[in-house]
Amino acid sequence: MISEECISTQTGTEYLGKTAITKDGETCMKWSHIMTLGADSADTITIGDASWESAMKYCRGLTYFPHPICLVNDNMGMCSIPYCCKQMIIFYISCFM
Fold it and tell me: For labelling alongside 18, which of 27, 38, 53, 62 has CA 20 to 30 A away?
């Protein structure tokens, strides 16, 4: 898993950084709050952290979502996590060769 402040895939499921704000500037809530929204939600979505509690309030790439997100006012907010430079170079080269 990557603990840098960047992602190497579009979904960012490997991301374990500490960004805790959406691309719109909203502050993320603790992921443990998802348990109060319904156990089914928490059981069907996986994260790279050991638990929802250990994910704190950081942006995460969750299964079934196309980009890193965080919990904002009982909804999901899209986070703006940049791509890791070396991954972008590899992607760029493979796309244009």
Answer: 38
Question: Residue 93 contacts by C-beta under 8 Å, 6 or more apart in sequence?
Answer: none
Question: What are the CA-CA distances from residue 67 to residues 4, 27, 30, 78, 96 (Å)?
Answer: 16, 17, 18, 7, 24
Whole-model pTM above 0.70?
A: yes
Top-ranked range on mean pLDDT: pick from 10-19, 34-43, 83-92: 10-19
Instruction: Encode pLDDT of 63-91 as tens digits.
Output: 788 899 999 987 889 999 998 876 445 55
Compute the half-sphere exposure of residue 43: CA atoms within 13 Å on the CB side of its CA: 3
| Burial (Cβ within 10 Å: 0-12, 13-18, ≥19) of residue 48 | middle
CA end-to-end span of the chain, whole Å?
28
Cβ–Cβ contacts within 10 Å for residue 37, how many? Answer: 12
Of the candidates 78, 39, 75, which has an alpha carbon nearest to the alpha carbon of residue 61?
78
